[in-house]
Amino acid sequence: MQKFWKEPLLHFALIGGLIFLVYQSIGLETDQAEDEIHVDSSDLKEMIAKWEMQWKRKPTSSEFQKLIDQFLQQEVFYREALKINLDHNDEIIRRRLAQKMQFLSNDFARMTEPTESELESYFKTHLEEYRLPAKYSLYQLTFTGDHRENPIKDAKELLSDLENLPFDEVEGKGDQLSFPFYYEKVSTYHLGRQLGEQFVRSIESVETEKWIGPVTSGLGMHLVFIKEKVEAPIPSLNQVKDDVLRDWRYEREKESAEEIYHLLKEQYKITVDELPEENFLSEDYSLKSVR
């Protein structure tokens, strides 16, 4: 696939197609007179579609005429602005047009879908990203600053007394919050939603079958007894195919955007002036390095 994207003929096709899409996207016709404005059926349908999306109904005839009038006013002002170069040196317009070009390059990337072997190869390269979350069965006590003057001290003092206590006697020794004392086979995803990602990261590599802590979370301090940890399996490609395809497309869009940028950039002779003084720069930096 990489070889395909490096073909010179494809480069010319990409540039030509990109320029064509630019004209299409901004509604310009190369043979249209500068003083002629033609509102075609696609323009009219787009006006109606946008109206229906906003108001959840079709426009009346008078509302439709107002849409046409607004379209014409915008088009007239737009063309007159171009005539007097109001688009020049405008940072917002520059960003918007550059963004539209990036969107168009993404459209090129979407024209190519991966083969099964390419998708399988991408999946194998990124296996760990698709691993399902681990599951825990654990007991926990919470100590918060809202209920205690020194939650860390209280948690440490209680920790040494917990080893010989049955769980039914341990329950209630922490602060009474809405979170359960015992979690049964809960995934790290749901555990993180309740007790925070910091808590989940803190218990990833701790021993099981013993009280440990204090463990920090956004709520406060915890004492934790992990009864069981079930490591998550790596799913098959079929189980996560939609996710893999989405990620492949995203990577392809980034590669395509970079490829098209360099192709277009090669058409320009780029020069960058030296700064008159460079002592205000935070690092040793020279504009001569810009290509």
TrEMBL record:
InterPro entries: PPIase_dom_sf, PPIase_PpiC, PrsA_foldase
GO MF terms held by the record: peptidyl-prolyl cis-trans isomerase activity
Signal peptide: none
Keyword Signal belongs to the record: yes
Known catalytic reactions: [protein]-peptidylproline (omega=180) = [protein]-peptidylproline (omega=0)
Keyword field: Isomerase, Rotamase, Signal
UniProt keyword annotation of Cell inner membrane present: no
Superkingdom of the source species: Bacteria
Name of protein: peptidylprolyl isomerase
